[in-house]
């Protein structure tokens, strides 16, 4: 099925199950996968049907509820023990994006703190999953507007380069980095997005470009190794990327290739912004060296469709993320405002969402 959605929501609660946009089929097919069991949700996260840090947090929250629903006991202790096993399965899916662990912890806390029967706990878990989904959407809209305020004031019309997909598809909707892009477009401050194709999974070419096309935002896809050249030619005014985990000192894990983009930005004096919700900041880690980096299967490198690209005998290394040191980051844009990486602790102070 290929239709054009007006709004993109990758995780939707519908008919007592979860509908996930199948991101492995975009841009050629816009279709949904129905998930009604926690094991299937774990598999969908692992296989990247749903991906992007906040979106997998939302998906895991619903995964916890689906798992809770399957537990057949009225004994609270037994229920919580079994729920811990569901949480363990979901935690084991992907290691880098901290939103996954954040959302699971929030769900377990809900279960522990809800008084009453097991049925009451199940009911409350579904409400918490809905709240995580709804709040992330609101958060992204706030990030978009704070990001707009943080962008350079000259030239009046900007071109923004982004990497991977940090859009509506990667969140509850609207996006983080693409949220900033959307807000800039809405306010007439954007001429064009440059989207790195983002090897090996091509989230930029497939997903970011798709989102921009849906919304009529002009988008130019480049291969990853063209970014520095575009900067040298004066084609890029700002870089905005998302994040999978940010350490307390501002070091930021994001899709592989982000680090080299930050180095190139520094060399060309181009501001480099990270846009992410507070749920992506892991204040327990002092710096980025402690962030676990997911390694994925080498087929992502050596195979496109049915075609094998490399000679047999070659070996592969396929880290899915890298860490950009804080000193290369101009500001981290959260729902509470934009902060210099060294000032990240201030982001915890709650401010009102912009109206
Ligand atoms: O491997 P993926 O596609 O889940 O990686 C996604 C990214 O790296 C995004 O940039 C990041 O999660 C931010 S999403 C708002």
Mean pLDDT: 96
Query: For this structure, what is the CATH homologous superfamily of the largest domain?
Result: Translation initiation factor eif-2b, domain 2
- Put simply, the count of helices is 10
The largest sheet has its strands arranged as 6-5-4-7-10-15-16
As residue ranges, the low-confidence spans are 351-355
| Topology as a string of helices (H) and strands (E) | EEEHHHHHEHEHEHEEEHEEHEEEEE
Termini separation (Å)? 37 Å
Which class best fits the helix and strand makeup? Answer: alpha/beta
Major sheet summary line: 7 strands, mixed
Relative helix content: 25-40%
Share of residues in strands:
15-25%
* Rg: 20 Å
**Which overall shape is indicated by the principal axes computed on the Cα atoms?**
globular
Query: So, CATH architecture of the largest domain?
Result: 3-Layer(aba) Sandwich
- What is the CATH class designation of the largest domain? Alpha Beta
Question: What can you tell me about this protein's structure?
Answer:
The protein has 355 residues and is α/β, with parallel strands linked by helices. The protein has two domains: 129 residues, translation initiation factor eif-2b, domain 1 (Four Helix Bundle (Hemerythrin (Met), subunit A)), CATH 1.20.120.420; 198 residues, 3-Layer(aba) Sandwich (Rossmann fold), CATH 3.40.50.10470. Helix 1 runs antiparallel to helix 2, helix 2 runs antiparallel to helix 3 and helix 2 runs parallel beside helix 4. The chain is globular. The two termini are 37 Å apart.
Which SSEs are present, and which pair or pack?
Blueprint: E1 11-14, E2 17-21, E3 32-35, H1 38-46, H2 53-70, H3 76-91, H4 98-113, H5 118-150, E4 158-162, H6 177-186, E5 190-196, H7 203-215, E6 219-222, H8 227-232, E7 238-241, E8 245-247, E9 252-255, H9 258-267, E10 272-275, E11 281-282, H10 299-302, E12 303-304, E13 307-308, E14 321-324, E15 331-334, E16 337-339
Parallel strand pairs: 4-5, 4-7, 5-6, 7-10, 8-11, 10-15
Antiparallel strand pairs: 1-2, 2-3, 8-9, 9-14, 12-13, 15-16
């Amino acid at each position: 099925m290929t239709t054009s959605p007006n709004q993109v929501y990758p995780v939707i609660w519908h008919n007592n199950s979860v509908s996930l946009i199948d991101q492995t089929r975009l841009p050629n097919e816009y279709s949904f996968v129905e998930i009604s069991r926690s094991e299937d949700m774990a598999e969908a996260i692992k296989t990247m049907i749903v991906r992007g840090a906040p979106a997998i947090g939302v998906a895991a929250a619903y995964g916890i509820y689906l798992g809770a629903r399957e537990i057949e006991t009225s004994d609270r202790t037994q229920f919580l023990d079994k729920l811990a096993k569901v949480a363990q399965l979901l935690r084991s899916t992907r290691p880098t994006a901290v939103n996954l662990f954040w959302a699971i912890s929030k769900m377990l806390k809900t279960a522990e703190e809800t008084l009453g029967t097991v049925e009451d706990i199940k009911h409350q878990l579904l409400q918490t999953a809905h709240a995580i989904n709804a709040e992330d959407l609101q958060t992204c809209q706030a990030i978009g507007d704070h990001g707009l305020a943080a962008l350079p004031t000259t030239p009046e019309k900007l071109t923004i380069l982004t990497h991977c997909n940090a859009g509506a598809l990667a969140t509850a909707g609207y996006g983080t980095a693409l949220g900033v892009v959307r807000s800039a477009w809405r306010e007439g401050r954007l001429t064009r997005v440059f989207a790195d194709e983002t090897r090996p999974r091509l989230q930029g070419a497939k997903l970011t470009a798709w989102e921009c096309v849906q919304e009529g935002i002009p988008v130019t896809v480049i291969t990853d190794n063209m970014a520095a050249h575009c900067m040298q030619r004066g084609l890029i005014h700002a870089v905005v990327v998302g994040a999978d985990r940010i350490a307390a000192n501002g070091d930021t894990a994001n899709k592989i290739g982000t680090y080299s983009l930050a180095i190139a930005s520094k060399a060309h004096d181009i501001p480099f912004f990270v846009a992410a919700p507070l749920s992506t900041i892991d204040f327990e880690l002092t710096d980025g060296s402690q962030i676990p980096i997911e390694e994925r299967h080498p087929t992502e490198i050596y195979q496109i469709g049915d075609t094998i690209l490399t000679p047999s005998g070659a070996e592969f290394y396929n880290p899915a993320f890298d860490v950009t040191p804080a000193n290369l980051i101009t500001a981290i844009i959260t729902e509470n405002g934009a902060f210099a990486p060294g000032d990240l602790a201030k982001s915890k102070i709650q401010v009102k969402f912009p109206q």
